[in-house]
């Protein structure tokens, strides 16, 4: 007998309304909520998941149907009971659940009416509903044998077994919007576009291996591989197993954007590469967390091509602090040092992609070990700011400078050369490595002698055409870089 049993005690069950509303506040968004439902479908050994949604103002709805094992009435009631499973219990290897809360918390985060319709092979169809308005009014944990419309049974009736999740009263997504509210309708549809992108990434390995097919309003989802394993130019730089083979890693460096076609760039989402760099944590092939350096490194433009795949089993949920939403994770102390080591190595390899492209060494005018002449040069000033300038020793530029006169065609060619060789990649790299070396110009910098003389020449030229003094000065200050130096007015006669 437990020694605590000798003390007086009282049972204090949570109030139904208060508790069930608390379950709405776990921080899901629509994408993570739908993904959590699909986790249950995978655990039920489904091969197909059909997601349907319909805009109808306050009467809008969402259904998620699978062809998995389905449930008996007893199993359904248990599944609808909050906290029905202990996270410490052993689970089958393919099981993506943990807390026994996912179905309820993910659904309640989006709607106030959750209905589950299910059918096990050779069993009758059964249904149960949580209506939060009713729970709040009654103050009781009353799980209803209720379905708002028998039409929602139709899809499941055609399957040997499976389950349909029905969301109604979508107060978080729709609120009390009228069916004619086009702005609300547009937001509703945009949210499901984000769901499509999220599911294509989170379950891409299931889809690639033909283990699962996901349909959204009859459109089949294609997988989106964040490591671009099928694209040319990418590389696998390391592969390791840690923590007694319970953690497996693959370190990837994506190809430079210049090696991708315009179609490949669109598919690879190159405009999002900065935010997508980092670790990608998978649990039983399901992507939990991505585009995050887990607090071990900072995101950096220079390393945006670096992505590291981490596979963990569901036995490590506690060690990695997997949360209810399966959207956050913290690496265990056992592997942290190795993650730092592999992260540094992968980031270095990713940085080499941009360093090569940027020709950084050839741009730096402090390096005299080679005779290569770039059009642009960079030097550090005494206060460690970086200054970029045109290299007057470049053969083409030097040739023009040595001439007494140059033609307009020659001048146009040199302007084109200067424009086409602007060292954008090197500037990005320098800024990534030493952001303090790139400071904004002062509001009132002092003009150098060359700028003053150039402004005087232009002023005199404008005056010679008969332009009034005020008009000439105004025109000059409409031209860069003179617009930065209001004190130039002192040098105009």
Give structural notes:
There is one protein chain. With 493 residues, the protein is of the alpha+beta class. The protein has four domains: 16-220, Histidine kinase-like ATPase, C-terminal domain (Heat Shock Protein 90, 2-Layer Sandwich); 235-356, Ribosomal Protein S5, domain 2; 363-437, no CATH class; 449-491. Helix content is 34%, strand content 17%. The chain contains 17 helices and 14 strands. The protein has helices at residues 16-22, 30-43, 73-80, 102-108, 132-138, 154-157, 182-202, 204-208, 262-268, 273-276, 333-358, 360-363, 395-402, 408-420, 424-433, 449-464, 469-476, and strands spanning 48-54, 61-66, 113-119, 126-131, 162-168, 213-216, 219-220, 235-242, 247-253, 278-283, 286-292, 306-312, 376-380, 386-390. The protein has a seven-stranded mixed β-sheet with strand order 4-3-5-2-1-6-7. Strands 8-9-12-10-11 form a five-stranded mixed β-sheet. Helix 2 crosses helix 7 (182-202), helix 11 (333-358) packs antiparallel against helix 15 and helix 16 (449-464) packs across helix 17 (469-476). The longest helix is centred in the last third of the chain and has 26 residues, at 333-358. It is elongated and about 100 Å long. Mean pLDDT is 86; it is low at 95-99.
């Amino acid at each position: 007998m437990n020694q605590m049993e000798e003390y007086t005690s009282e049972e204090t069950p949570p109030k139904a309304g208060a508790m069930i509303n608390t379950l709405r506040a776990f921080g899901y968004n629509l994408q993570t909520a739908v993904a959590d439902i699909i986790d249950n479908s995978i655990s039920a050994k489904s091969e197909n998941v059909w997601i349907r949604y319909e805009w109808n103002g306050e009467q809008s709805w969402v259904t998620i149907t699978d062809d998995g094992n389905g449930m008996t009435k007893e199993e359904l009631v248990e599944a609808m009971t909050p906290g029905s499973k202990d996270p410490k219990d052993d689970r089958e290897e393919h099981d993506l659940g943990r807390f026994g809360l996912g179905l309820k918390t993910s659904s309640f985060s989006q709607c106030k009416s959750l209905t589950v319709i299910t059918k096990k092979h050779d069993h009758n169809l059964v249904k149960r509903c949580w209506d939060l308005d009713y729970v709040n009014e009654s103050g009781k944990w009353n799980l209803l044998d209720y379905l708002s419309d028998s039409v929602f049974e139709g899809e499941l009736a055609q399957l040997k077994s499976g389950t349909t999740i029905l969301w109604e009263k979508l107060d978080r997504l729709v609120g009390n919007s009228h069916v004619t509210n086009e702005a609300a309708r547009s937001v509703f549809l945009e949210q499901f576009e984000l769901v499509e992108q999220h599911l294509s990434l989170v379950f891409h390995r299931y889809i690639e291996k033909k283990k699962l097919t996901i349909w959204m309003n009859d459109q089949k989802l294609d997988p989106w591989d964040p490591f671009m394993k099928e694209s040319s130019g990418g590389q696998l730089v390391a592969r390791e197993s840690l923590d007694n083979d319970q953690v497996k890693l693959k370190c990837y460096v994506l190809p430079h954007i210049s090696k991708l076609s315009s179609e490949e760039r669109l598919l690879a989402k190159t405009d999002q590469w900065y935010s997508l760099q980092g670790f990608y944590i998978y649990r039983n092939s399901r992507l939990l967390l991505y585009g995050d350096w887990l607090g071990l490194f900072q995101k950096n433009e220079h390393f945006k091509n670096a992505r590291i795949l981490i596979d963990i089993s569901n036995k490590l949920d506690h060690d990695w602090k997997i949360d209810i939403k399966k959207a956050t994770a913290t690496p265990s102390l056992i592997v942290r040092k190795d993650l730092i080591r592999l992260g540094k190595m992968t980031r270095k390899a990713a940085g080499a992609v941009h360093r090569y492209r940027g020709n950084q060494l050839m741009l730096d005018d402090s390096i005299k070990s080679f005779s290569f002449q770039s059009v642009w040069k960079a030097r550090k000033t005494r206060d460690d700011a970086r200054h970029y300038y045109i290299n007057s020793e470049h053969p083409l530029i030097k040739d023009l400078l040595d001439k007494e006169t140059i033609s307009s065609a020659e001048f146009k060619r040199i302007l084109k050369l200067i424009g086409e060789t602007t060292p954008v990649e090197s500037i990005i790299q320098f800024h990534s490595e030493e952001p303090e070396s790139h400071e904004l110009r002062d509001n009132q910098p002092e003009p150098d002698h060359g700028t003053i003389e150039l402004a005087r020449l232009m002023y005199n030229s404008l005056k010679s055409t008969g332009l009034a003094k005020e008009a000439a000065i105004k025109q000059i200050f409409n031209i860069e870089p003179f617009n930065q130096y209001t004190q130039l007015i002192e040098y105009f006669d």
